[in-house]
Amino acid sequence: MPDTTTNTGVLTSLAAQQGGVDIVLDHITKQYPGQQTPAVEDFSMRVEPGELIMFVGPSGCGKTTTMKMINRIIEPTSGSIRINGDDVLSLDGNELRRHIGYVIQQIGLFPHFTIAENIAIVPKLLGWSKARIAERVDELLRTVQLDPGTFAHRYPRQLSGGQQQRVGVARALAADPPVMLMDEPFGATDPITREKLQAEFLRLQADIGKTIIFVTHDFEEAIRMGDRIAVLSDRSQIEQFDTPARILAEPANDYVRSFIGEGAALKRLALIPVTDARIGSADPSAPVVTVDEHASLREALDTLVLTGGPRVNVTRAGAVVGSIDHAAISAALGSEGPARRAEEA
């Protein structure tokens, strides 16, 4: 059994950490009593500070179990887990979890607590003052685009599913943890709400730079959100661990190809900005509809198809700066595409 002695120095370091931290899982195995095969077997991975890592795989492959061993909701049978070089198995589990944000699909808000009280749970456990907690609650509600004056004193039942999910994210961020664990947090929402929540979370992550492990069964979500994706098979065996662009361009085997499914080229286009393609001269005869230079090539292609024109003009801050055609989009999938950029990075 792991030593559960509280190491206050490590916890203090975690609490004070700005941005993200590195996480190392070294030969982690989880064997449940009475089961012949391990739930997770000899799993190793290094996550860099500020990375958003997606775990994707079939139901029962151990992705949630692997994630839960990081904050010791589930205790590993063997192996080591280190955050910023410190062994988390030497810490008190309850104290450790107060310094790691955790968001689940079912949200888990306390129904008889107000939204403000839900967000304040961990700061209260950490002994924050009332004034500091109130300030943090207001800050986080604004961060997730919920007006404190409107939502702070409501109860979870008075919010939509998407709003509740935002509160779940705010609660996980309450003590400003350097690590966040997210277990299919948007899976229970409808497609439109899920897409909005994904976009909002990516915007938020661009500002806060947490180290995040994100479990999903949705490969499209993994492509859209992840810095790197771990495609997992039975017992959390890693079939490929790489950037979305590299996985789409160079799947490691047939198993990974089965996750990508049809339309790999279109999925790759969604990862490439218009500025990565060769921009031609502005075309005065092009349709009035334009595409912004910060849009993806998938959006540019959609615009070309919808307008029926041979070219579409590209804008910067509303002004036309050039145009793009089908040939330029196709060329961007070649040597100048995402696989090459991922390798150079």
Automatic annotation (TrEMBL):
Q: EC?
A: 7.6.2.9
Q: Does the keyword Plastid apply?
A: no
Instruction: Give every ABC transporter domain span.
Output: 23-260
UniProt keyword terms in alphabetical order: ATP-binding, Nucleotide-binding, Transport
Q: Name the domain of life this protein comes from.
A: Bacteria
> What InterPro entries does this protein's entry cite?
AAA+_ATPase, ABC_transporter-like_ATP-bd, ABC_transporter-like_CS, P-loop_NTPase
**Any GO MF annotation of the entry:** ATP hydrolysis activity
Q: Which family does it belong to?
A: Belongs to the ABC transporter superfamily.
Name of the protein: ABC-type quaternary amine transporter
Organism encoding this protein: Microbacterium stercoris
